[in-house]
Design brief:
This protein has 212 residues and is of the alpha/beta class. The protein has one domain. The protein is built from four helices and nine strands, in the order E-H-H-H-E-E-E-H-E-E-E-E-E. Strands 1, 2, 3, 4, 5, 6, 7, 8 and 9 form a nine-stranded mixed β-sheet that branches. Strand 4, helix 4 and strand 5 form a beta-alpha-beta unit. It is globular and about 50 Å long.
Length: 212
């Protein structure tokens, strides 16, 4: 049975580039972050614990994103170990997450590769509440503790990196089940000499996307 999932907005190509610029980001910046993280992952070998490559990619993506953005006035915090990078206006934050094989594909519903914990669940539930209260994902809120949380979702395979910056607004049992907005970046071809040992044995569930 195919699940029907509502998605408000899916942006690609030039429209996606412009939307990133609205948020103070660029494809070049994100590509640098992704490639730097991949260079770190390439140091992992089969002698490392199998989990290390995936943890390294997530951790280094978070670090290099901060190194790019903090000089531009962004800040960061880690509430309940949720590694947030916060826009200078304090209106929204970005967290990095490993995506499944559907990441970066416009006509299906991607998800995080692993179930998320309580901190991510609370952040997504806050997104849903902010959407209900204000109806506009660009504006902020009078409560400085309640900000939107975007997810920088990334997936690496043998040929390319697929990345999107997306705004989740529903989560069930640790799985994101709806995105209010998806900004899909063009795929970045990967260097063949930096392939890594990340395990990708998880099955992917394909869902049909219905845009509201």
């Amino acid at each position: 049975m195919v699940a029907l999932v509502l998605v408000d907005t899916v942006l690609v190509d030039d429209v996606a580039v412009d939307r990133l610029a609205d948020l103070g980001l660029s494809t070049d910046l994100i590509e640098r972050v992704v490639r730097q993280a991949d260079a770190e992952v390439s140091m992992c070998t089969e002698l490392d614990p199998p989990i290390l490559a995936g943890l390294t990619r997530w951790a280094k993506t978070s670090r290099f994103l901060r190194e790019e953005l903090i000089p531009l006035g962004w800040t960061y915090d880690n509430p309940r170990n949720l590694a947030r990078t916060i826009h200078p206006d304090g209106e929204f934050a970005i967290v990095a997450a490993t995506g499944d094989g559907l990441t970066g594909l416009a006509d299906v519903l991607p998800g995080t590769r692993y179930r998320k914990g309580d901190a991510t669940t609370a952040a997504v539930q806050a997104n849903e509440q902010l959407a209900f209260d204000f109806g506009d994902f660009v504006t902020g809120t009078a409560d400085p503790g309640a900000i939107l949380t975007w997810v920088l979702l990334f997936h690496a395979d043998e040929d390319e990196f697929r990345v999107e910056l997306s705004l989740p607004d529903r989560i069930e049992d640790g799985r994101i089940t709806r995105w209010a907005e998806r900004i899909i970046l063009p795929p970045f071809p990967r260097d063949q000499d930096t392939l890594t040992m990340e395990d990708d044995q998880h099955d992917h569930v394909v869902v049909e996307v219905v845009r509201r």
